[in-house]
Specification:
The protein is an all-alpha fold and 156 residues long. The protein is built from seven helices and no strands. The longest helix has 21 residues. The protein is globular and about 40 Å long.
């Protein structure tokens, strides 16, 4: 198990708080002991700590299960916020009109989530670590942005 040299925690002053990945049970994604590290990635992103973000994203790029949980978690939250996944998160062409640019890998995974209400583990194991890293990065950036800006995040 890896840790950072300093902790990141949920901020008390944050107006909107989403259930962190470690406390959310997604029916088609197994819960794991390392899920608390996923929380650290969210908090490091919210704190703007690039060193921790980079280290944790590198770790999760090697872990298809962690990326699976992050992407499904982000898709679940975005679905709740927007009443469904907006085209800007699933259609590569639609992202051109937004400041937030989800990765191509995230868009493809989100499109699957939109169609089926979940993604499958095989979709993550079939991807290269670099693709999993970019999908995880997009997922956590999306949730941190929604926490900060709510529905305006995609359209600022």
């Amino acid at each position: 198990m890896i840790t950072t040299d300093h902790p990141h925690r949920e901020r008390a002053e944050q107006r909107r708080k989403f259930v962190p990945p470690s406390r959310l049970h997604l029916p088609d994604v197994p819960d794991r002991a390392e899920d608390a590290l996923l929380d650290q990635l969210l908090y490091a992103t919210a704190d703007g700590c690039q060193d921790c973000r980079s280290m944790l994203l590198d770790r999760f790029a090697q872990d298809a299960g962690a990326t699976h949980k992050l992407v499904d978690w982000a898709c679940w939250i975005a679905t709740e916020v927007y009443g469904g996944l907006p085209a800007e998160l699933v259609d590569e062409a639609a992202t051109a009109d937004t400041l937030f640019r989800p990765s191509l890998t995230f868009c493809r995974l989100a499109a699957e989530y939109r169609a089926r209400g979940r993604t499958s583990s095989g979709m993550y194991t079939a991807r290269e670590p670099a693709q999993r890293r970019e999908a995880a990065d997009t997922a956590v950036t999306l949730v941190a942005g929604l926490q900060r800006c709510w529905t305006d995040f995609l359209y600022r």
